[in-house]
């Protein structure tokens, strides 16, 4: 693991992110860094070291725009997942699927909703917006209008995802608890559990 911002030497070890912060260097530029724990050692590392390579995401077939978008969201995914027992890779995969690599209107600023989370209470929500969406109802796909959560930042979208995993739905508050590392045991099982939990109405959800 690289310390003090040397992103090029990151060796891919599984680490725990303790906190994130920003610092202004002598050249006047502002950088985001993470304080991380790697085994028994604690380091500060430049956030640019936490990119898609750390999650073993194959980007060979992606466009430059898609790669840039991934680089922009992976640090937030890692921050939320590593500190709360989720799989960052699953979160990123869902964000890709739900937002079409950040190109959907709902995912773009000022809405910043990467997961298609519908209007519901959360301490991370900044407001609500109405969009057309496709649902699988009665053995057919239909287009309906629905209200969705909006966020002041992409990071808050990830934290609201965490909130949803922790609090489930009104009729089953523990519905998504089997997505956490301690229960699922692997990222692939976590993805399967999301499908069996009924996270989305799309029949192909979890197959990509």
Automatic annotation (TrEMBL):
The keyword Hydrolase applies. One of its GO terms (molecular function) is amidase activity. Gene3D superfamilies: 1.10.530.10, DNA polymerase, domain 6. Pfam families: Glucosaminidase, GW. Residues 62-208 form the Mannosyl-glycoprotein endo-beta-N-acetylglucosamidase-like domain. Keywords: Hydrolase. The keyword Iron-sulfur does not apply. Belongs to the glycosyl hydrolase 73 family. This is N-acetylmuramidase.
């Amino acid at each position: 693991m690289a310390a003090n911002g040397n992103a090029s030497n990151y060796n891919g070890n599984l680490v725990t992110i303790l906190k994130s912060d920003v610092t202004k260097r002598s050249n006047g530029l502002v950088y985001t860094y993470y304080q991380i724990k790697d085994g028994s050692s604690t380091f500060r590392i430049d956030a640019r070291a936490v990119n898609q390579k750390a999650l073993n995401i194959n980007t060979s077939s992606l466009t430059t725009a898609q790669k840039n978008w991934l680089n922009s969201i992976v640090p937030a995914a890692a921050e939320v997942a590593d500190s709360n027992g989720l799989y960052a890779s699953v979160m990123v995969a869902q964000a890709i699927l739900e937002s079409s690599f950040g190109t959907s209107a709902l995912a773009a600023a000022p809405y910043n909703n990467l997961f298609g989370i519908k209007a519901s209470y959360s301490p991370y929500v900044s407001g609500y917006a109405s969009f057309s969406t496709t649902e699988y109802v009665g053995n057919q796909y239909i287009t309906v209008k629905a209200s969705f959560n909006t966020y002041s930042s992409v990071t808050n979208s990830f934290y609201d995802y965490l909130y949803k995993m922790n609090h489930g739905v009104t009729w089953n508050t523990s519905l998504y608890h089997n997505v956490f590392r301690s229960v699922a045991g692997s990222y692939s099982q976590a993805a399967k559990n999301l499908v069996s939990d009924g996270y989305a109405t799309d029949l192909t959800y979890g197959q990509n």
